[in-house]
Amino acid sequence: MECRWTVNRTNPEYIAYVAGTASVSPLLAQVLVNRGVKTPAQLDAFLNPDICKFADPFALPHLKTSTERIRIAKNNSERVLVHGDYDADGVTATAIMVEGLREYGLDVHYFIPDRIQHGYGFGAAGVEKAVSLGAKLIVTVDCGISSFDAAAAARARGIDVIITDHHEPVRGPDKGILLPEAAAVVNPKAAECPPEMAHLSGAGVALKVIQALFENRIDAVYKLFDLGAIGTAADVVPVQDDNRILIKEGMKVLQSGERIGLKALRQATGSRDVSFKSSFLNYTLVPRINAAGRIANATDVVKLLMTKSEHEAGQLAGWMNSLNTKRQEIEESVYNEALKMAESMNPGEGALVIASEGWHVGVIGIVASKIAEKFYRPTIVLSIDGGIAKGSGRSIPPFDLYEGITQCKDVLTRFGGHRQAAGLSLPSANVGHFRDLFCRQVRERLSGEDLQPVLFIDSAVRISDISIGLVEELARMEPFGYSNEEPLFGSKGLEVVQPRMVGNNHLKMRLRQSGRKIDSIGFDFGGMLGAVEESGMIDAAFVPTINEWDGGRYLQLNLKAIRPAIKVNEQKCR
Questions:
Q1: What is the dihedral of CA 316, 318, 319, 322, to 10 degrees?
Q2: CA distance 240 to 194
Q3: How deeply is 387 buried, as exposed, middle or buried, from its count of CB atoms within 10 A (0-12, 13-18, 19+)?
Q4: Phi, psi for residue 316 in degrees, rounded to 5
Q5: Is residue 151 a contact partner of residue 163, using CB atoms and an 8 Å limit?
Q6: DSSP state of 484
């Protein structure tokens, strides 16, 4: 889909001020301003994400109440059940809570629901598990905020519940927040929360609970930061404030190799990536951790994360790696079918609601994400089985998916999520009606311009501006992720030199401007070879990188978009 290219520009005097304040280049200063990092305090916090700045957990609403109830459990020798979730954020949050509570001296067990058998979240199966164990306290992680029935059922069986979650709470007709009846509810979205902790993942919230139990001692929980980093990176929360500190420090713990299970998983992937950047989490570890919960049972993932046995770690890591291969095969099949259906739909509807029988529910979230990206429409993919449609949705930046689905709740059995991703279920007979209601919500809330993708370029540059020193300076922005994407630059009027296909459909060429040449590669851009050869001159949007090969270090542009050379639409913004 054709997109608008927009170059962000700011008053040069202001950029000079930011550059001087932070002692950085004007190009990095422009990128920082684009990310909303402007004041001296913001610049210091962002460029120097120090562990000492990790926020006081007791500033989280109701956290003190939860720790008091946990202390009672310890004093009374009560058995505790940690109820997790089957995605990467959920299993890492489970391991954090279980390890932390055991270290604190509690008798702790855990339960991960099966996606197919139990569905998402804290439900009846978790309550029955607690009853069978004789547990007197259930602590949920990464779930529970909308589990009214399960919380009431636990209470009726004499079991207290502490809910720790980060998903959007249910709101009543007056927009007021409705919470399950529990001993405590710790959720940054359920009450007013300090900004540095407002966007914690489920793993982040779990870590804060353990941090508080150990009286705010970072040294007591630092070994859990690798798990927190994986959960935070996996759940696509803003990489700012505490999340930024957690991922940066967690990468150091991960690199140490002290957690046997994660070391084995790294070895099983065969990855040679030793840089331990955030991309290693997102594209290597997280998919394999997620694979079990998508097409099998994620209970053994928690076992891998906590095992002390190298033999067990090796076996589980190999299993997870093979599951990921199987997941890819299933995903490709479902995606191809869903793509054909999407292509036959009317784009004027504003959204895509795609349903079919027999699709594996474990991969429909990934499929929804790919369809949403390709068509730039809010997308919901539903798998129908036995009269029930279970679905997963992904959105585009201008549309609040959770709010949109909330407006259709009368035809739904269950739903939950946040602005950009959500899950839902409904009777299959209601799918057509839901499609009409949801598409109407999208049409009413979005304009035609909202439905055209925009490529936001951090700064227009010349090839002569790109250097190894610049790439190394930009690395100060690591870890990258949601709300802190890799800096994207654009350049006009580039002469194409020696374009050719390499590898599996990749486009490699040199780009020349004012006598300066630089290597570039466009992954999966092979289909554009003919157009590039014909035009001879292109505009390009790219991420500058350092390619380390054969003992040398070379500049290379990682192309994100190209087009025949034309004038870029520039937008001034501050």
A1: 160
A2: 13
A3: exposed
A4: -70, -40
A5: yes
A6: B
d(CA 131, CA 122): 14
- Residue 180: half-sphere exposure toward Cβ, Cα within 13 Å: 29
* Helix/strand/coil for 474: helix
Structure tokens, 113:
């629901």
Task: In whole angstroms, give the CA distance from residue 133 to residue 68.
Answer: 22
Instruction: Report the alpha-carbon angle 15-20-26, nearest 5.
Output: 40
Report the distance separating Cα 379 and Cα 447, nearest Å.
Answer: 17
Which residue has 């913004």 as its token pair? Answer: 573
What band does 209 get if pLDDT is binned at 50, 70 and 90?
very high
Instruction: List, for residues 393-450, the tens digit of each pLDDT value.
Output: 999 999 999 999 999 999 999 998 888 899 999 999 999 999 999 999 999 999 989 9
| Other Cβ atoms closer than 10 A to 344 | 7
Answer whether the bond into residue 479 is a cis peptide, omega within 30°. yes
Q: What is the pLDDT of residues 321-354, one digit of tens each?
A: 999 999 999 999 999 999 999 999 988 899 999 9
What is the DSSP track for 396-415? Answer: -TTS-HHHHHHTTGGG-SEE
User: Position 13: which residue type?
Assistant: E
Return the percentage of the chain with pLDDT > 90, whole number. 88
Q: DSSP assignment of 272-297, as one string?
A: ---S--HHHIIIIIHHHHHHHHHHS-
Q: Six-digit token pair at 226?
A: 């690798």
159 vs 140: CA distance, rounded Å: 13
Cβ atoms of 243 and 201 within 8 Å: the answer is yes
The dihedral sign for the CA sequence 384, 385, 387, 389: negative
Q: For residues 505 and 519, what is the distance between their CA atoms, to the nearest angstrom?
A: 17
pLDDT-based confidence at residue 158 (cuts at 50, 70, 90): very high
Read off the tokens for 266: 């790294």
Question: 549, exposed or middle or buried, with CB in 10 Å at 0-12, 13-18, 19+?
Answer: exposed
Residue from 570, 557, 569, 568 nearest 512 by CA:
557
Which domains does the chain show, CATH number per domain? 4-11+454-572 (2.40.50.460), 56-248 (3.90.1640.30), 345-445 (3.10.310.30)
**Residue 312 CB: number of other CB atoms within 10 A?**
16
Q: Specify the amino acid at residue 396.
A: I
- The residue with tokens 């709740």 is 409
